[in-house]
User: Fold 3-hydroxyacyl-[acyl-carrier-protein] dehydratase FabZ from Ruegeria conchae.
Amino acid sequence: MTTETQSADIQLIQRILPHRYPFLLVDKVVDIDGYQSAVGIKNVTMNEPHFQGHFPGTPIMPGVTIVEAMAQTAGVMLGVGMDVIDSELLIYFMNIDKCKFRRKVVPGDVLEMHVETVRGKKGGKIFKFSGRATVEGEVAAEAEFSAYVDWDMEKTT
Assistant:
């Protein structure tokens, strides 16, 4: 594991995650510390398709997409931290625990997803993460979530 922090711009994110518009929910990931922690950034804009039908006239980012953005941040962290870029990495939700929503996220907000690995090791298949999404330092959502990592370490090492 490297001790230097790293970041991922949108081009690198797309080399790690299979998600694309309208379901790619992370614009960049900063402060990547191996596969231990990272901060994802999502610039919330009115142009996103869920705002057409999720409380029309009072657009609010759906809570499930906030949790998905935290999970995508964790996926980028794993991709960079374990150096498995361009490896067809797939990560699947297994469960979501202790999920709470604390404030609305609306167009114009900058959502920061702070994720940490609670359990999991290089080459492992099961990971548990803790996530906290904030806007201007105020907690918008928090959750613990587990994921199954579908990768072939022979191709990625």
Q: What stands out?
A: The chain has one domain: 4-149. The CA atoms of residues 123 and 153 lie 6 Å apart.
